Each structure stands twice: as structure tokens, then as C-alpha cells.
Amino acid sequence: MALKITDECINCDVCAPECPNGAISQGEETYVIDPNLCTECVGHYETSQCVEVCPVDCIIKDPDHQETEEELRAKYERLIGGG
Fold first, then answer.
1. Among 63, 61, 4, residue whose Cα is nearest residue 32
2. CA–CA distance, 76 with 38 (Å, rounded to integer)
3. Are 65 and 35 in contact (CB under 8 A)?
4. 31 bridge partner residues
5. CA-CA-CA-CA torsion sign (69, 75, 78, 83)
6. Phi first, then psi: what are they for 42, rounded to 5°?
7. Fewer beta carbons within 10 angstroms: which end of the chain, N or C?
8. What's any one GO cellular component for it (predicted)?
9. Phi, psi of 61 (to 5 degrees)
10. Residue 44, Cβ neighbours under 10 Å: how many?
């Protein structure tokens, strides 16, 4: 499942640099996560780095983009050119 940033985001800019896939960018009002690039850090880290650094806990699992651990790993492989 990809992650998403809720409207509680305060635009502090700590999450974007932490994303190893470049999935986080500034949206119209708050930061947004591209579900096509988000692997919840599977393949890179044990935990989602954006969630770890977010000071307001506004990053949640996106119910509109549900993926299994295997699907996230496959996406990671595609993104790094391994599959």
C-alpha cells in the first residue's frame, strides 16, 4: 500500500529529502506522495522514512492504493531497474 499525506501537513519539508524513490513533492497546498513511486521504503529501509521524520504524524497508508509487501518489493525492483 502506498502512503499519502493528509491535509494536516504543515509543509515543513522534512519528508521529501528522506524518500529514496523521490515519491514526495510539493503539491498545491501540501506535500503529496506519488503512489507509482512509493514503496513504503521496502527494499531501502525497514521502516517508511517519511513517517519516521514527520513531526505531525500526517503520513498514513493510502486506502486507494493497497499493495502487498510482495507488490511493493516488485515495484522497488522495477524502480531500480532490476525487474
1. 4
2. 8
3. yes
4. 26
5. positive
6. -60, 130
7. C
8. cytoplasm
9. -70, 135
10. 16
What SS3 string covers the chain?
CCEEECCCCCCCCCCHHHCCCCCEEECCCCEEECCCCCCCCCCCCCCCHHHHHCCCCCEEECCCCCCCHHHHHHHHHHHCCCC
Q: Which amino acid is at 15?
A: C
Q: What is the pLDDT of residues 33-81, one digit of tens each?
A: 999 999 999 999 999 999 999 999 999 999 999 999 999 999 999 999 9
**Amino acid sitting at position 35:** P
For residue 59, the cross-strand partners are: 5
Domains and CATH numbers, the chain: 3-79 (3.30.70.20)
Q: Exposed, middle or buried: residue 41 (CB in 10 Å: 0-12, 13-18, 19+)?
A: buried
